[in-house]
């Protein structure tokens, strides 16, 4: 059985972060389902260990450790997971023995940085989940992304390096990567779609970055272009977000007919995150301005979850429509007018679009399928 070590960022975000957790878990469970012996690893500095209230505390008492142990237990990873704190863990020797016999180190977002563990497997793969931003941070802002420790570079920005993609490459060749979802954990719960279009959104994310005279921003810029959308459609639109109640965007969007709710209660336990999406009519969401501006081909792991749940997705185009079917079950938009058209299209036959959504997930996003496509891409099938 082939072996792989997968670097994740789960314990680093132990509070209200189901979406973040599943961005990593889809790969861990996907490789396991594809027949690989998987060891999950993460390294957390003790200075970033917090309690349930978000205050610094000792690692042994931290929410980070509790959350890690809960995930490891729930998904049957007890003898195949290591959380290092300041580079140390009781089972480090056992991890190293496994890693020396491993074929790949699959480092998601380059999160894991302990070089002795990274160097042990035969090859190291840097897995980019933030296309355009990752490369701009490295090339323009000279941020050390730890690229030097890796041999292969893959990105869910499948247009990187292609004509029409306005993003640097930071001196690397970026191979295309699909977006996986574990279908067994995200299955349709009801054949009847709900009444409200929903999504989860970090409104501001991280600071804008500049490349070639243009600024690459967050979802806030793209949502601002659609503030009046509810006035042009009968469909109900809701955003589960981290916006502070006193943020001026809250009143502006509420006054225009959007519904905004606190995303935190929907993220713990992770089943709340899944069930909120499952009870929706579908997902309606913008992409980060940087993804749109770069035309990098980014596609959302959260959208893949909605599709798997049999909920149609209307997602702003970043070039992803070159890789996934669109028009039924999965639809794209560029501006307010095309967003209205997409909403009206689904409204004509919600049940049909719901069925097609699940079919798209099965055909294009099934985690073992995406894993095997990745292996073929790097020549390791």
What does this structure look like?
The protein has helices at residues 18-33, 63-74, 92-100, 115-118, 133-139, 219-224, 248-255, 270-278, 289-294, 301-308, 336-347, 350-365, 367-377, and strands spanning 3-7, 37-44, 81-85, 104-108, 123-128, 152-155, 175-176, 196-198, 200-201, 209-211, 214-216, 236-241, 259-262, 282-285, 313-316, 330-333. It has 381 residues and is α/β, with parallel strands linked by helices. It folds into two domains: 3-178 and 367-377, Rossmann fold (3-Layer(aba) Sandwich); 196-364, Glycogen Phosphorylase B (Rossmann fold), CATH 3.40.50.2000. A seven-stranded parallel beta sheet has the order 3-2-1-4-5-6-7, with helices on both faces. Strands 8, 9, 12, 13, 14, 15 and 16 form a seven-stranded parallel beta sheet that branches. A two-stranded antiparallel sheet has the order 10-11. The longest helix has 16 residues, at 18-33. The two termini are 13 Å apart.
TL;DR of this structure?
This protein is of the alpha/beta class and 381 residues long. 33% of the residues lie in helices and 18% in strands.
Instruction: Report the uncertain regions.
Output: none
DSSP strand tally: 16
**Strand residue content:** 15-25%
Q: In sequence order, what are the helices and strands, one letter per element?
A: EHEHEHEHEHEEEEEEHEHEHEHHEEHHH
Q: What is the overall shape?
A: globular
**Helical amount:** 25-40%
List the helices and strands and how they pair.
Layout: E1 3-7, H1 18-33, E2 37-44, H2 63-74, E3 81-85, H3 92-100, E4 104-108, H4 115-118, E5 123-128, H5 133-139, E6 152-155, E7 175-176, E8 196-198, E9 200-201, E10 209-211, E11 214-216, H6 219-224, E12 236-241, H7 248-255, E13 259-262, H8 270-278, E14 282-285, H9 289-294, H10 301-308, E15 313-316, E16 330-333, H11 336-347, H12 350-365, H13 367-377
Parallel strand pairs: 1-2, 1-4, 2-3, 4-5, 5-6, 6-7, 8-12, 8-14, 9-12, 12-13, 14-15, 15-16
Antiparallel strand pairs: 10-11
């Amino acid at each position: 059985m082939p072996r792989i070590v997968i670097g994740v960022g789960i314990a680093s975000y132990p509070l209200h972060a189901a979406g973040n957790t599943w961005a990593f878990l889809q790969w861990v469970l996907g490789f396991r389902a594809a027949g690989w012996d998987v060891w999950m690893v993460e390294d957390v500095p003790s200075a970033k260990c917090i309690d349930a209230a978000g205050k610094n505390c000792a690692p042994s008492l931290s929410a980070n450790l509790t959350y890690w142990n809960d995930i490891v237990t729930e998904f049957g990873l007890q003898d195949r997971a290591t959380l290092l704190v300041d580079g140390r863990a009781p089972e480090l020797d056992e991890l190293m023995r496994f890693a020396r016999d491993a074929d790949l180190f699959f480092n998601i977002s380059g999160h894991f940085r302990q070089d002795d563990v990274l160097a042990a497997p035969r090859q190291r793969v840097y897995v980019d989940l933030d296309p355009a931003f990752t490369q701009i941070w490295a090339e323009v802002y000279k941020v050390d992304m730890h690229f030097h420790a890796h041999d292969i570079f893959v990105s869910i920005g499948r247009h990187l390096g292609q004509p029409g993609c306005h993003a640097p490459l930071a001196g690397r060749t970026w191979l295309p990567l699909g977006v996986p979802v574990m279908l067994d954990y995200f299955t349709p719960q009801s054949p009847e779609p709900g009444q409200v279009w929903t999504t989860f959104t970090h409104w501001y994310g991280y600071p804008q970055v500049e490349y070639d005279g243009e600024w690459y921003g967050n979802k806030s810029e793209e949502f601002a272009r659609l503030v009046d959308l509810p006035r042009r459609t009968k469909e109900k639109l809701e955003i589960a977000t981290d916006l502070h109640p006193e943020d001026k965007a809250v009143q502006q969007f509420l006054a225009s007919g959007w519904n905004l709710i606190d995303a935190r209660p929907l993220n713990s336990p992770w089943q709340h995150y899944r069930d909120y999406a499952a009870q929706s009519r579908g997902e309606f969401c913008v992409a980060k301005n940087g993804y749109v501006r770069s035309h990098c081909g980014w596609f959302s792991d959260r959208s893949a979850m909605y599709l798997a749940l049999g909920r149609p997705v209307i997602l702003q185009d970043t070039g992803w429509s070159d890789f996934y079917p669109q028009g039924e079950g999965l639809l794209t938009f560029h501006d307010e007018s095309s967003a209205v058209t997409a909403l009206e299209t689904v409204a004509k036959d919600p049940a049909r679009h719901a069925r097609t959504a699940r079919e798209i997930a099965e055909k294009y996003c099934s985690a073992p399928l995406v894993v095997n496509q990745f292996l073929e891409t790097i020549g390791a099938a």
